[in-house]
Fold this protein.
Amino acid sequence: MSIIKLSDKDKLVQTEAIEELREYFGARSLSLGRKLTFEVMTYGCQLNESDSEKITGMLSSMGLVSCAEQGKADITVMNTCSVRENAEDRLFGNLGVFKTEKKKNHDMMLVICGCMMKVPENVEKIKKSYPYVDLVFDPQQLFNLPVLMRDCIRDRKQLINIGSEDYIAEDDFFSIERARKFRALVPIMYGCNNFCTYCIVPYARGRERSRSFDSLIGELKEIASQGYKEVMLLGQNVNSYGIGSEDGKSFADVLEETCKIEGFSRVRFMSSHPKDLSKRVMDIMRDYPNCEKHLHLALQSGSDRLLKRMNRPYTRKEFFDIADYFRKEIPEGSLTTDIIVGFPGETEEDFECTLKAVEYCRFDSAFTFQYSKRPGTPAASFKDQVPKEIVTERFGRLLDLQNDLSYKSNLAKVGNSYEILIEGESRAQPGIFTGRTISNHLVNFTVPEGVSGDLEGRLAMVHIDRARPYSIDGFMERFTDV
Ligand code: SAM
Ligand code: SF4
Ligand code: F3S
């Protein structure tokens, strides 16, 4: 499979399609007497959220406006996730409503993209059972959305475009419309070469490809100058950034250079693979005050036997060594993880190794998943699948243990004050604001009398007075960014 770097010429083709669509939607708006609207529905991880910001940017450039009412937009884009079966079920569960809506609104267009569209069974299902879906394309064709939309509208029939090539575009290929005014999601690399035996991502997202160092840093400086306080460097395995590149730059170089950029109060990254996380990365986390003190490092299983079967090339001991180093160097930091319960062949003994590993590492929080069989992955054909009731029972035990650890981690914050980057006001509870510490602990807090207005993106000291299982509560003392 080849990797194609998109050029200025490719960008021109897309820009022309955007212009044509702008004219077309403008004319439709005039005859309808209202602006045409769009909605982007995002499933899955931050990489999909980042892709959706690009989709939103493209749709806005076409003159469409965001729709206030869910499910009623003229153009709906569903950006899907395939990582577990329940993510897929959510899409098919939501599709049905559009059948009746489309009968009422002839301008309505339904677009489905994202990782699920790289699974042939899903595309077949859409072809067969959902003829009212207008356009389907895979994640590598994201840049091609304007041309595909134009062709689809012109030909007035279902258009399915699933490519076999991996593309890489610098982010300035797109005009990005960011979802949060304080946070910039910046993919530094695409794809994954790790082929963990349970995982669909390498098939959905293609081979690893890193963005060029110089243009990445240039873009990050631009983002900081636009006033974004937080940047999140994204990749399925950020530690493989630059492997094999000519300039020899590594993820540690990207991280350090980003931390040096004036204006970023928080530099975050996601995800790290234990097999090649360097000590230098943890040293940078320790040494730069604006580098988040939070390491998300997926353990997956605490059993060496299962790690091998999962094609995760590290041992529990190697994982513990990283955890020990992190805890020693960054004692105020938080360590979080992903764990899969019920991977094929998991015995009670393997599962107990996972529980012991969780206890040893004292994770501050964890995403715990029941193994989900992904068609086309090696583990899907392993003969020794674990019965559902055993998986559910083990999952409950793991959850109990982790909830206890998460609560203890939150409890340790009580009585202290921390600087919080404010994310906004709670919709459910007006007057209560939320934000995060630099260790990524979620904080709900009240503000002093007289403080009001839009606080999103502000920095403030918050005193913590109560711990909950998944968050901590407190009250704001003062702003720290004035
Ligand atoms: N690249 C990241 C890493 O390796 O740390 C993980 C990205 S993946 C999108 C997020 C998590 O989903 C994985 O760490 C794994 O725990 C979980 N996951 C992936 N495939 C799964 C499957 N088939 N069943 C259950 N959980 C799965
Ligand atoms: Fe999936 Fe493994 Fe790649 Fe993470 S590293 S995306 S779990 S294949
Ligand atoms: Fe899902 Fe694709 Fe992310 S499968 S988790 S959206 S890379």
Observations:
- The mean pLDDT is 94.
- The first helix runs from residue 8 to 32.
- Residues 45, 83-84, 198-199, 201, 236-237, 271, 273, 298, 300, 338, 340, 369, 371-372, 374 surround S-adenosylmethionine (ligand 1) (CB under 6 Å).
